[in-house]
Each structure stands twice: as structure tokens, then as C-alpha cells.
Amino acid sequence: MIRPHRFTPNPDTAADNAFQVAATGAPDVLADKAYQEVTRAAEVLKDAGITVHLFDDEDATRPDSVFPNNWFSTHAGGRAALYPMYAPSRRTERRQDIVEMLKTQYRVQDVIDYSGLEHDNVFLEGTGAMVLDQVSRIAYTARSRRADPVVLERFCTAFGYEPMVFDAADSNGTPVYHTNVIMCIASEFVLIGLSMITDPRRREEVAHRLSGRRGTRTVLDLTPEQIHDFAGNSIELEGHQGQRFLALSTRAAATLTAGQREVIEASCTLLPLDVPTIELAGGSVRCMLAGIDLDARRELRDSVGPAGLEPTTTAV
């Protein structure tokens, strides 16, 4: 997780992010609220037994640094990827100290860097642009300027995924800017705004594939209103004892129906995090967490690490 000291909704990303809201009030007050929200969220995750590596960012030129899942991802087998970012103001979010922490504390064998494709105006914003089904090896991707098919194909070839691309839009016809605002894949269920997939046949195919082999996952269809409240921007996490948690915002949790909660809680504990200020920037809890799917070099303990790394309790 990245704790921002100079947070503000990014004007460079507002044009194609329909979830983003213009901020009001003093910038310092807004930044302090975001700082406190990340601090509290990290504490809640840690108290649940989830490993959290918390880095601070004091750079005023990186308003979206609170969303690290867009610039890197990690994968089983000791692999990581760095991604090309659409907005120039987001490209300096890539931090070598975080990459070095991963190499030091986890078994990282290979880092594939796609960021040079920014010079060719080719972008793929990580696990924001893609929602990865690690069981069926499918990369679900809503078509957008932040998910170029060329680099998507390269990623899927290198990491062993089948690309499944579709068009998705809100009720005003605005394309969905990131796939992870409309879709969350957990072990035993999926949260997805199916109605936002514009082609009916593609919608049916996506729903079928998401249900998993032999229909082992329950597909929970979210309404556009629930998507707007970030119910799709959730992530399943694992605690130290193997417990499953669904991390989502308090706003998202409040919009779930009793039936949806029943399905989720059959396999996961709901873990709401209060992040209303950060949600002004058009992303929520899933965007704030860059998951770590790597083997630790040794048991992770609470300790002071590299500069910017807070005492910690898996998510960056």
C-alpha cells in the first residue's frame, strides 16, 4: 500500500474516469484525510492477519500514487511485471525501492518491464486494466485507452493467460476505464456488473467462463448502482492462517444485498475499509492494494524495513 502525503483527484485522468469526482475544500485537509484513511486501512488489514507493506509518498507530482496495482503485479513462480501508464503524471509512481523490497523479502526470479512502451503510446495499467483468473488463466479486459491489445497479448503470452477482451460502458455510454471497477474474482464467487458489457453474446460468454470449471463459482451480478458504489472494486485476501477475506470499502459493503452477502460470507469474511476521500479519485480498495503472489524468503515479521517502509504485519 502507498500512503500519500499530497493526495488529490488527478486532473490528468478525469477525462475517461467516470468514477472520479472533483474535490472541494483545502488541499491540505484533503491530503490529510487520505493519509489517515490509508493508515487506518492498513491497520485493519494487519489486525486481520494480512501482511501489509506500507510505503509513504511525499511527492506532490504523484496524485494517484495511492493506487499501486496499476504499475506492477506479482505472480506465482517468482515473476513480476511493470506496466506502461496512460497519464504522464502517473509514470513516476514506479518505484525501484518497492521492487527491491520484493526481491529482498520474496523469491523474485524475473521482472518483465513493459513501461518502455509508453514512448509508443501503448498502455496496459496492470491489474486495473486486467482482472486475472489465476485458476482458469484468463485475463478479463475491458477495452479502453488504458488496455492496449498489443501489450495485453504480450503479457498473456509471457505469463500464460488467455486474453478475453470485451466492451463495457455505463448508462451514459462512457467506456469503463478499468476492468477492476466492474469485476472481482474470488475463490468461490465473482462480483461483476454484467449489464455493463455491451454485447449480449460476449456478456453470456464472460458469465459462463467466470463460473469456472463445472460451474464451481457463483456469479453475483451487480447493478450499475452497486458498481458506482465500488462493489466491483473488491479483492479477496488471505490471512496468516489461510482465512479468506473480501476487502472492500464501507460504501461498497453497504450496497450489497442480503443474498449477495450470504454467498460471500459462505467462503469469506467481509472486511470493510473506510476510504471515502480516496474514492473521490475514481478508485477504491482494490486499486489501493497491489497483491503479492510470491513465496517469502523467510517468515515475515513486524519490522522496520527500507526507507519509507513502515512496521508491517499479502498486499503492497
TrEMBL record:
Pfam families: DDAH_eukar
Chain segments annotated as transmembrane: none
Cleavable signal peptide: none
Taxonomic superkingdom: Bacteria
Entry protein name: Arginine deiminase-related protein
Organism: Ornithinimicrobium cryptoxanthini
